[in-house]
Design goal:
The complex is a heterodimer of chains A (262) and B (319). By secondary structure, chain A is mainly alpha-helical. Chain A has helices at residues 2-15, 18-45, 54-74, 81-87, 90-93, 100-107, 115-130, 137-163, 172-186, 195-204, 212-218, 235-255; strands spanning 48-49, 52-53. Chain A has one domain (2-255). Chain A is built from twelve helices and two strands, in the order ααββαααααααααα. In chain A, α8 runs antiparallel to α9 and α8 (137-163) packs parallel to α12. Chain A is globular, with a radius of gyration of 19 Å. Chain B has two domains: 5-241, 3-Layer(aba) Sandwich (Rossmann fold); 245-317, Alpha-Beta Plaits (2-Layer Sandwich), CATH 3.30.70. Helix content of chain B is 33%, strand content 32%. The longest helix of chain B has 18 residues, at 184-201. Classes of the chains: A mainly alpha (262), B alpha/beta (319). Chain A binds chain B through residues 2, 5-6, 9, 12-13, 16, 88-89, 91-92, 94-99, 103, 255-259, 261-262, and chain B through 16, 54, 58-59, 63, 66-70, 84, 87-89, 91-92, 94, 96, 98, 100-101, 103, 105-108, 112, 115-116, 119-122, 176-177.
């Protein structure tokens, strides 16, 4: 597969700057640890957050964090489109018999981002043992399904927000607000947010389907956000819709690409 | 549209909307027509020069031919395909070199870039090996294959870029300023190689350049564009005949003297006994002029200088 070869080339190239690689990996891990520390410190003062106990929030954090981390590793590279458009090198992606999305995400692959998946994964494993999960075949099945859907939803948000750079090259920060901000939003129970923010997180950026609804189903919390908790199983459908939307927006953006310079 | 034409373009246009600052907060939107109605064709197997001053629309045309940019209007066919809609299929049939942008993997040895392109273009291993052997031989790349691209000189890198563009056996090679920044020896190596590829494999070549020696050495036909339109289309000889009306007679006189005063010519330069007389071929012949000069002074030696393509193109641009 072409993707594998391109990723391999990128890893070999990065390996020539080893020190930088390890420092970055360390930095990423520290940031992830800091996120955990923030939540842990909240629970030293309160017993529950929006009706969710510490280990229940850990389940949210783990599901959302793993989805985000994998999407970050596999798809977030699409945001480098902005840099390539400015440098004029985006043209080259369009001269290859490959989808520019696949080409870009493979060529800009950064193994160091693995540092962002490890901690949420550990938190998730701990939460699965400690949180009062209503263990049934269905709830167990929900774990991989929710993670897969979460990866796709985060990936779609990345692709859609990165498409904006085809019109306004300097919109990178706006895009980051949605992606990194979205990750933050999945780490807390949506109950703590205001009603409008909840609606946005459910229907606009469908972040509630990444961790909140699946976790509510697994923990048998009734009526999360006033909806029956079976809504968690809509996550795959929501992911498909998000992916189709992202594909359409990206395709539209590519057709409006204005190459710079000569 | 003819089937023999590998490139067929009719009424091609590309306009961009640019926002300009007008006052402190107001912005004005302006439409810029980078390409304003180009008709052109390229026969299969030809080698064509696509020239024009900076900002004439050369690169924009190339980008529409490759499918990078979607035309605002007009019809484009490249090897029977519509570039913007069939970009991925077209990518397998064209090779592109942008003189200013590398398609090689900067931190990896040249060989790795070629190997990656083999996977990207799905070339089978045997054909890849044969092509690589041939091009690395023709372009003298052998000792460079294991050097990281970032350590190559510009001339060496350009030879790598040409190989990279050809490894998947494209039927058309599109070159955007392939000799820019190269020294004389590297330029000559690149030209020599392009002629070989064109003659031996029948690869169609379309190149943009500012170096008119490229054009004289390489191109059977010349398309000159300016302000987004084709303003001249013909062979180098045609265009020279049409525009190169001004020739120069250089005479070495036996003795230095004041500038000659000859009907039909003007003296443009005097250096000791040598004088340069500019004349128009449609007004006077070289031999008539020489007779008139001989009546005034004794001529020891002479040469007639034909206008070079450089001065002709300069003349065309400034019209």
């Amino acid at each position: 597969m072409v993707w594998r070869h391109l990723v391999g080339a990128r890893i070999r190239a990065d390996w020539q700057y080893r020190t930088s690689f390890f420092l970055f990996l360390l930095g990423q891990s520290l940031i992830a640890c800091l996120d955990i520390a923030v939540i842990a410190s909240i629970f030293t003062n309160v017993d529950s957050l929006g009706g969710w106990s510490g280990y229940e929030v850990a389940l949210l954090f783990g599901l959302g964090g793993v989805s985000f981390g994998v999407a970050d590793l596999l798809i977030s590279q699409v945001e480098t489109a902005s840099r390539h458009i400015k440098a004029g090198t985006f043209d080259l992606f369009l001269l290859r018999p490959l989808s520019p999305l696949v080409h870009l995400s493979a060529s800009e692959f950064a193994l160091r981002r693995l540092g962002r998946v490890i901690q949420p994964f550990i938190v998730l494993v701990v939460a699965l043992f400690k949180a009062p999960i209503d263990w049934r075949v269905e709830t167990a099945l929900l774990i991989p399904v929710a993670i897969a859907a979460g990866i796709v939803i985060f990936g779609a948000i990345w692709v859609i927000t990165s498409s904006i750079v085809f019109w306004t090259v300097d919109s990178q920060e706006v895009a980051s607000a949605f992606t990194y901000g979205g990750n933050m939003a999945t780490q807390y129970p949506l109950d703590v947010l205001g009603v409008w923010m909840r609606r946005i997180a459910t229907f606009v950026l469908p972040l509630a389907f990444v961790a909140y609804f699946p976790a509510a189903r697994m923990l048998d919390h009734h009526e999360p956000l006033g909806l029956p908790n079976i809504v968690a199983w809509a996550a795959p459908a929501v992911a498909v819709i998000a992916a189709l939307g992202a594909r359409a927006v990206w395709g539209f953006a590519i057709r409006h690409y204005r190459s710079t310079g000569s | 549209m003819s089937v023999d034409n590998i490139i067929d373009v009719k009424g091609l246009e590309k306009s961009f909307t640019v926002t300009r600052k007008a006052g402190r907060l107001r912005r004005r939107r302006e439409v810029v027509n980078a390409v304003a109605g180009i008709d052109m064709y390229v026969e299969r197997g030809a080698m064509i020069g696509y020239i024009g001053p900076n900002g004439a629309g050369k690169s924009t045309t190339i980008k529409m031919l490759t499918g990078i940019l979607v035309p605002s209007a007009g019809v484009v066919r490249v090897d029977g395909l519509e570039p913007s809609r069939q970009r991925i299929e077209l990518a397998r049939r064209i090779g592109v070199v942008f003189g200013q942008r590398s398609q090689l993997w900067w931190d990896l040895p040249l060989r790795d870039s070629f190997d990656l392109l083999r996977h990207v273009f799905r070339v089978d291993a045997a054909r890849h090996a044969a092509n690589l052997a041939r091009y690395s031989d023709g372009l003298d790349l052998g000792p460079l294959l294991d050097v990281p691209v970032r350590q190559l000189s510009l001339g060496q890198r350009m030879r790598g870029e040409l190989t990279a563009a050809l490894l998947h056996d494209p039927s058309i090679l599109l070159l955007d300023e392939p000799t820019i920044g190269l020294d004389v020896v590297s330029k000559e190596a690149v030209r020599q190689f392009l002629v070989e590829i064109n003659q031996q494999q029948g690869t169609t070549v379309l190149l943009t350049t500012h170096d008119l020696t490229d054009v004289e050495r390489l191109c059977q036909r010349l398309l000159i564009i300016d302000h987004g339109r084709v303003i001249e289309d013909g062979t180098v000889a045609d265009i020279t005949a049409r525009y190169g009306t001004e020739r120069t007679l250089i005479v070495d006189l036996v003795e230095p003297g004041p500038p000659l005063d000859v009907a039909g010519a003007t003296v443009s330069n005097v250096e000791g006994p040598r004088q340069w007389l500019r004349f128009r071929r449609d007004e006077v012949t070289a031999s008539d002029l020489l007779r008139r000069v001989s009546q005034q002074a004794e001529v020891r030696d002479l040469t007639v200088e034909e206008p070079d393509i450089e001065s002709i193109v300069r003349e065309i641009y400034t019209r």
